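Q: For a teaching session next week I want to show students how multiple molecules come together into a single three-dimensional assembly. I've collected the sequence lines for a complex. Could you give me the predicted C-alpha cells for the whole thing so I can convert them for display?
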Amino acid sequence: MSVRRALDVTAAAVAFVLFWKLIVVVGNYPVFILPAPEVVAERFVSAWLDGTMEPNAAQTLLEVVLGFALGASAALVAGYALARSRLIERVLSPYLVAAQATPILALAPLLALWFGSGLLSKVVICALIVFFPVAVATMVGLRNVDRRLLEMARSFRATPWQLLWTLELPAAMPGIMGGMRVGVTLAVVGAIIGEWAGGEQGLGVLINLARGSLFDIPLLFATLLTVALLGVVLYLIVALVERRIVGPRG
Amino acid sequence: MSDLGPQRRPRPRGRSARAWFVLPAVIALLAAACASPASSTAPGSSSSAPASSAGPAGSLAPSSSAPSSSVAAAGASGTGVSGSVTHLTVGLGYIPSVQFAQFYLAQQAGYYRAAGLDVTFQNKIDPDLVVLVGQGNLDAGIADGTSVIPAVSQGIPIRYIATIYGTFPNIVFAKASSGITTAGDLKGKRIGTPCKCGSSWIMLQALLQSAHLTTSDVQIVEYPDYSQEAAVYRGAVDAATGYTNNEPLQLESQGQKVVVLHVDQTLPLPGPGLISSTQTIATKGAALRAFVAATLRAMRDIEANPQKGFDAALAVVPQLKSQQALQMSILKATIATWQSPYTQAHGLGAIDQAGWQQSVSFMSGLPEHLVPHPVTVSQLVDPSLLPSG
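A: Of course. Below is the structure for the complete assembly, covering every listed component.
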C-alpha cells in the first residue's frame, strides 16, 4: 500500500472518529444513547483483556469460516451447472431468487428449530446467505468467457475438464472472486443473525446480552466494532487471495 | 491494502485532505441539531426495567402494528402539555395482550381522561423500552424490576414508580408426573429456558440457590424460539422456565397436571412495574401520579370483576375472542400475580424496598456481572408517585 493510500485511510478513520465525537459533544448524549469513541475504545480493550470478547469472536469466526466454505463450495458447483445448462437455470432460478428474496432474519428461527441452536444452524444460515452472490457471480463469470477462445480450445480437442481448468475458471475468476468478496461479508451478517436466533456464544449473543440484560451500551458498540473488524479482515483476506490468483484489479 | 472500489481520478491533494475533516464537522453539527435531545440527567441517578420480558402470556398476533389509543382530543399524541390536558406516552411490553387489560380499561373507562391525561400506548420490547424511557422518548413504561437494577447500574436514569406484578411472574414449571415438587428436585434435571439471560435466568439462579444448587448442577437446554413448553410436554426436558400466566395454563389446557415453582418464597425479586425517567418525574410528576392512580383503580376494578378487564382487552385485541376461555384464564392468572403479601399489607402497587435490597444483593453476586456499578434502592425506586406516597 502506498504512503498516499495509507494517509487517505488514516485520514478517513480520523475524520470518522472526530465526526462521532462531535455528535456526542454537540448533542450532549449520555453513554446509554451514544457513547463517545474513547469510551467505546476503553470498553473494547477491557472486553478483550478480561476474556469477554475472545471466546465469542472465536465462535463467530468459526461459524463464518465453516459457513462460507460450505456456501461458497456449493455455490461454485451450482454456478457452473447454471452456466452450462439452460434447463437447470430455468428450473432452479426461480427457487434461488425466491430463497434470496426471503429474509434470512425470518428463516433463522426456523433453522434453529430444525438444526438446533448449536453450530450447525449458524453454519447453514451463513452458507445460505453466501450461496446466492457466489453462485450468480460464478454463473455470470463462466458465461462471459470469450466464445472465440472456447471454440479455439475445442478445435484443439480440449476435454471438458481441460476447458474448465485451463480456460473457463481462470477467465471467470475475477467475477467469482467478486462474488466471494460479497459473500464473505454476508457470512458475518449470517452468523450474527443465527446467533440472535439462539445460541450460547458468539458476537451476536454478546450483542443481545449487552443490550438486553446488561444494558452495557459501550460493550454493545465494542462488539459491533469487533464484528466490523472481522468483516473487514475477512474481506481483505479474500481480496488478497484474489490478488494472488487474478492480479490487481483495475 | 486492497482496493475497496474502482480506481478514482487523482484530485488536488490539499483540498481532498481538508474535506475529510471539514465535511464530517458540518454533517455532525447538522445531525446533532436534528437529533432528539437526550436526557441530561446524571447517569446512575435513576432506573427502570422492561416489561416486554413479562413474556408472551396471552399474546396473540396483533391486528396492526402498535395500538395507539387516545382518550382525549383528537390529534393529541405528543408528550407535551396543552391546556389542562397532559399528554403521556406509555410503553407497554411486546405486543397488545390481555395482560395489559388494566391499561386498556383505564383508557376506555375514562379514568385517564378524568385525571386530565391524554394517554397514548406504544408496544416495545424490553431493552428498547428501558432506553426509550431513560431517554425521555416515552414518559413511562412497564418493565421488569430485574432489568431496572442493571440499567440503573449502567447509568440509565430511570426509576421504578409502581409495582404491577407483586408476585414475580417468572416460574419453573414441570409436569406433575416428573416428580419435581421443590427446587431441590431440580438437581441433575434437564431444564429448558429461552436463553441464559433476562428475568427468567435470574429467577432460575435464585431458585436453584435456595436449594444450595447452581446452574452447573442442572442441564440447561436453550429454546430461543420459546418452545420450552412444547419441550416439557413431549418430555424433551424435565422442567422449564416460563410465566405463571402462560405455559402452565397452556399445558393444563392440554390435560396435563402441572407443578409450578415460584421464587418469591425465597427471594422477593421485583416483578414488572411502571418506570419513568428522573427527568420526566421532575417535569411531569403530577401527571405520572395521576396515571399510576388511574391504572391502580382499573386494576382494582378488574380484580373485582375480571370480565371488565377481558372486555377492555377484547376491544383492543379482537383476536382474543377466538380463545376466550384460555385468554380469560390467562387474565385471571395475571390478576393473581398483582398481589403479594407486601401489597396486601401496603396497598396495590406498593414497592417492597426491602425486597429490592435483597434482589440487588443477589444480582450483584451473579456471574453475569449484572450490577457493575453499585446502586442503592433509593436510586432504583421512587414510591412518591404512589397514591399512598
